[in-house]
């Protein structure tokens, strides 16, 4: 079992100096989010992470979730841990007090969830998805649905799920076949859903499924999908539980990682049909689901950061303790840990600097969401929404790819011990691997960034974002930070790529689509560098070792990560012709 | 269960056009290696890979090796598969007919092992290590040892192991503590060894352990290590088996992957001490072990290629069959597999082109070994040995890192199905992860390349290698291949890095050591590009679709892989100061 200690000073540093927490808490909606309250929330969440969730991480991995006689059992201690969250009201942190929530900023919820995802990713999928389901009901449900379901979902007494994927409909939601047939004041839902995270489990008395399905007269494709609430147990008007609904877990997947999280095949309507109620208007389900998905995508990007932080802590501890040979150039007295071997240090720095960059990006995206939803001024809301929209594919696409690389470096730092399961490094590596896949693969994020968010407006939005990067780069350069000039040069490369994408898109859409993932990586690295520059600007002249380190990690990031932008630019600007040049049979 | 079909035309193309098989078979030592014999060996080996080994790959993963009442059980069918290799005499392919071998080239053995490693990596570790043990006994054993052990090791009736690692001595062999005390005509060995691949198993009647240990009067450090033969069962002079030796498997590791391969903790001398005999001279064990390790390092690099090929085949099949949405820009009639989604195609091309580059590099290294060991002319032997020495860290360090990336892309192509263990893609991902660790981590390969093989001769050898790359680049440029000019530019970057490394090494050895892994990656990419250019030069003007594809993969490699050289050059030339700039406490 490995420990986790929340990096509270790093988290606070990014909240205050990179993401702009003060701008968020200055919004009228968040008048209660005083600095004292923020601190105590972070400290309490850190304790839960370290004391309650982290010790259960390896337990969940080794025991896994099991389907036994129709009941989905979770690992030892997990139900008790869930009850800790329920009792603290933690699930309601970002929700309106109207439904029992705390009414605190999304960016604060993000910081709390970073700690929990790092402590126990398989567990924290449950609050993550429950919050997504609350969002959907809060945003699109009728008053009756809100009254019936939200109070217990906000407390976490009931959990929520998202039921999108079907065997023939993964990335392509147009292919959804689950049916919803009207019957009186409700609908009968029938169909099969796969990959349903926490689709069933024993931790709570009821589970509220949000299910995409088609009405009998629905148009084909994505414009014929509607969203339904399908509870595991029907809920009476007084809030008490009624009959068991026809929505059951048919089996659980045997997965590479996140063993503690039950991934269910859900059968709706094996009998007379599951009873559900329509959310919002018919045939607008995909649009509603996208709102949730944007939340979920930022949350999965956060998992990339979190698993990276966990892997880093474990590797750092091992590197301090493990003695193995005399490091090259070592002049210190006596034995030293492998932390002083230059390449081990290079790996640790590669992990550390990208963790800082990801945290900056993800918290900034979360703060933009707060502003977009709560600023009194519509123009400010619009600007923040545009930034959130552009950041979301970077948060999801880039942070999860980087999270995988960092989890792999965590194994590498351990050498042979990293390959032995008992050590724990391998679990992070296995757990991390899902993050580039679920809630839309990296390619889907990249297509979102390029095809939707760059080509549709002719590159307008991205040029604005690049201007914002250039402003930071200029400030860094003026302040004499080495990253400044490098960030400026990289921004010019990115700008050239945007122009190429826009032009190529007019020629053949396969060209920008083929360049989309390299472009996503380029933009992730670039905006990550902007975050490092912001941090370095804030830390400059500060007196202590923590602040001084921020200048070094920014330098390291510039030399070891930002340096990749040129090559990515070459790849993109070379055109994508070679990608599709072979006939299928030649592969 | 997933199938594997050996890519015989690709293998033959690289043997003939990139690695220069003809130059090897022209050596007097290999007079019997006629084209017909080579073909039939490759075809037979391909059948064994497809029919015997590949079907057991998932069986081995799910059953694993188990220690039951002191016996190490292997998975169902594995003993029968081993007997297929024994009956065919396959283990003796590269060994002298004097000891029952076939006397065929190392490069041919490499091609055969590529197929078997791809078919079943956990299984093929056993012949791989047995061949390494034969090499050691053949090279350094007494005539008596050779007569006693080699016949049955060459047939594979007995298997071999390498016992280096101890709990406190992984990468640092100077810390080895296992003792060898002289007693009459033999030695008593006592100590604990860990991570011993196929340290014990039930497939054969005897196992010959090669064990590093210290004599009582040995100097400290690596100059006091000797090599011993310690058989599981003592062998009588007539070759029959005697008493059980005091060398037992204490436990097996629970690993991330290669479950079918037993990784043993070996206890030597828990009782009266294991009986062993000294190989070669006392205190020269490390030197002998290094000869074996060079073989083993090339063999592990080959695993990187092999697992990549296996992952590619599986991803390609899935991408052909899986239908999901209409690909961007798709104008074909009807439904098509995801193979026509631009980013899926980009991933497949990224896999394919690097597999071709690795195969060229690895087979070339193997051919250099053949020339170095068998050429009648000493100067030719010397030149080939120098190339083999420089290639070995690239083969091991670069191919295993690339193998991991490709196995991960294999998961990604499968989307959610890639995360489900039954699919098989995840097994390749788990299996691949050990390859950058055992037989020396990537950092150790990089230090070998930079500190030993570049700084010691002031960059002389590497300049020669870069000149060789430049020659290919020039030829490619003259032939009008796009990769030519790009390879030339990248060679200039590499040259600048060599000069920087040599200079920085004089200043502070930590500087080149910190840049070593980026430099290894740069050199791997570069020599890989040289191999692609050689292939394209050979394919140019050829009439069929297979040869035409070589030109496209070379173009793709240039745009998507070789393009990384600039960034790696920036990283190296920026200096390594930021790597060690933080105090330990600031990490």
Automatic annotation (TrEMBL), chains A, B:
<protein>
    <submittedName>
        <fullName>Acyl-CoA dehydrogenase</fullName>
    </submittedName>
</protein>
<dbReference type="InterPro" id="IPR046373">
    <property type="entry name" value="Acyl-CoA_Oxase/DH_mid-dom_sf"/>
</dbReference>
<comment type="similarity">
    <text>Belongs to the acyl-CoA dehydrogenase family.</text>
</comment>
<feature type="domain" description="Acetyl-CoA dehydrogenase-like C-terminal">
    <location>
        <begin position="467"/>
        <end position="583"/>
    </location>
</feature>
<dbReference type="Pfam" id="PF02770">
    <property type="entry name" value="Acyl-CoA_dh_M"/>
</dbReference>
<feature type="domain" description="Acyl-CoA oxidase/dehydrogenase middle">
    <location>
        <begin position="162"/>
        <end position="267"/>
    </location>
</feature>
<dbReference type="Pfam" id="PF12806">
    <property type="entry name" value="Acyl-CoA_dh_C"/>
</dbReference>
<keyword id="KW-0560">Oxidoreductase</keyword>
<dbReference type="Pfam" id="PF02771">
    <property type="entry name" value="Acyl-CoA_dh_N"/>
</dbReference>
<dbReference type="InterPro" id="IPR036250">
    <property type="entry name" value="AcylCo_DH-like_C"/>
</dbReference>
<dbReference type="InterPro" id="IPR009100">
    <property type="entry name" value="AcylCoA_DH/oxidase_NM_dom_sf"/>
</dbReference>
<dbReference type="InterPro" id="IPR052166">
    <property type="entry name" value="Diverse_Acyl-CoA_DH"/>
</dbReference>
<keyword id="KW-0274">FAD</keyword>
<dbReference type="InterPro" id="IPR013786">
    <property type="entry name" value="AcylCoA_DH/ox_N"/>
</dbReference>
<dbReference type="InterPro" id="IPR006091">
    <property type="entry name" value="Acyl-CoA_Oxase/DH_mid-dom"/>
</dbReference>
<keyword id="KW-0285">Flavoprotein</keyword>
<dbReference type="InterPro" id="IPR009075">
    <property type="entry name" value="AcylCo_DH/oxidase_C"/>
</dbReference>
<dbReference type="Pfam" id="PF00441">
    <property type="entry name" value="Acyl-CoA_dh_1"/>
</dbReference>
<dbReference type="InterPro" id="IPR025878">
    <property type="entry name" value="Acyl-CoA_dh-like_C_dom"/>
</dbReference>
<feature type="domain" description="Acyl-CoA dehydrogenase/oxidase C-terminal">
    <location>
        <begin position="283"/>
        <end position="449"/>
    </location>
</feature>
<feature type="domain" description="Acyl-CoA dehydrogenase/oxidase N-terminal">
    <location>
        <begin position="79"/>
        <end position="157"/>
    </location>
</feature>
<dbReference type="InterPro" id="IPR037069">
    <property type="entry name" value="AcylCoA_DH/ox_N_sf"/>
</dbReference>
